[in-house]
Design a protein that fits this description.
The chain is an alpha+beta fold. The chain has one domain: Nuclear Transport Factor 2, Chain: A (Roll), CATH 3.10.450. It contains four helices and five strands. Strand 1 and strand 2 form a beta hairpin. This is MAIP1 protein.
């Protein structure tokens, strides 16, 4: 992340604390985002899209239903991220919106890098083979790859709105296109 982007993100976090939620914590939000990412990615992998109603926006859910039905099993398996397999997390962008009706939204894009042992061909573009673990002898190798995912979380801060974050964008490059 560039120093300018880092400063801008921290400035937006300060605005969120000052004007929307005095108890907002970057650390707590990141912890919750990682947990949500892990749960949602596993449900996507298992095709349990009906369980995503409360977590994912209706528009994103409709697109996911179409895309997931077309994915081969090994690509679906690669979507799943155990919380312990998340290697790195960072904010991509933070935005504050006001619409014409006075409704206030905050949107935070999170980027995740996670390890997954899905059985994908070696030539899958957009992913990186990180290492191979050898258990026992040379004939038993377990491959792990590093994948990326972008999830955008949005929350309405208008008075009286539910204090829930909703996922409004899901991207798993080269897997879920």
């Amino acid at each position: 992340t560039s120093p300018f982007a880092w400063l801008r993100t921290r400035f937006y976090y300060l605005l969120i604390r000052l004007y929307f939620d005095q108890e907002f914590s970057v650390e707590e939000f990141t912890r919750g985002a990682k947990q949500a990412f892990s749960v949602v990615s596993k449900l996507l992998s298992q095709r349990k899209l009906e369980l995503l109603d409360e977590l994912v926006s209706a528009e994103v859910l409709q697109v996911l239903k179409e895309k997931i039905s077309l994915l081969p099993d090994n690509h679906r398996d690669a979507l799943a991220a155990d919380i312990d397999a998340i290697m790195y997390t960072t904010e991509g962008d933070v935005r504050i919106y006001y619409d014409d009706d006075g409704i206030k939204f905050v949107s935070i894009l999170m980027r995740f890098w996670y390890l997954n042992g899905a059985n994908l061909p070696d030539e899958v573009p957009g992913e990186t083979k990180v290492f191979q673990i050898v258990f026992g002898d040379e004939s038993t190798k377990e491959k792990r790859r590093l994948f990326t995912a972008n999830y955008e979380f949005q929350r309405e801060f208008t008075e009286g709105a539910k204090p829930d974050w909703t996922i409004t964008r899901i991207e798993h490059p080269r897997l879920l296109e």
